[in-house]
Write a structure and sequence with these properties.
Elements (H helix, E strand, L loop, with lengths): L1 E2 L2 E7 L1 H15 L7 H22 L3 H34 L4 H41 L3 H14 L6 H19 L3 E5 L2
Antiparallel strand pairs: 1-2, 2-3
Helix pairs in contact: 1-2, 1-6, 2-3, 3-4, 4-5, 5-6
Length: 191
Amino acid sequence: MEQGNLPTQRVNISTQKMLGGIGYILMMLSWMPRIGIFLALVGFVLWLISMYQLSNILRKPSIFQKVLIGFILGIVGVVIALAFGLMTGVSLFASVRGETGAILGLGLGVASAILVAYAALVVSFYFYKEAYEILAQAIAHNLFKIGGLLLFIGAITTILFGLGLLLMIVGYIVLAVAFFTAPNEVEVQGT
């Protein structure tokens, strides 16, 4: 088939969509005692492999680039937040000037750590949303766009007493469904 001047070819993405769907299911099982963290890590790796392969197969490198930027920003934000938290703890125990200074320092340190972690979460999920918008357009499956938007709105509203976490859980479910219901074959424009 020809679209414009570029020929198109049909490509099979069944393996990649299965990896992504299973990855999301495993990430949703992170609440399980003892093995939850391991399942979430395995799920994340499967999802990352899926997004990398989809990016290559669909000839849309920006998909994986945005996922990678979101991941790196998320990690950097968590490390900075942990550093703030650690410095707060150390300063609390090292403080000998009195309770008021120690309590104020503790409060400022905790507030700084929370704000940095929150900002990193929002920016990270913004890039994931962008990647899902590109993926949704590339394979003509809007559930990816909806799921990415739910994750992003959930990240923004996590500060509102758990409403955001609920939206993020719904976003994870929508994205798992999106992976499993995406078409097995899509048309990709050649070069």
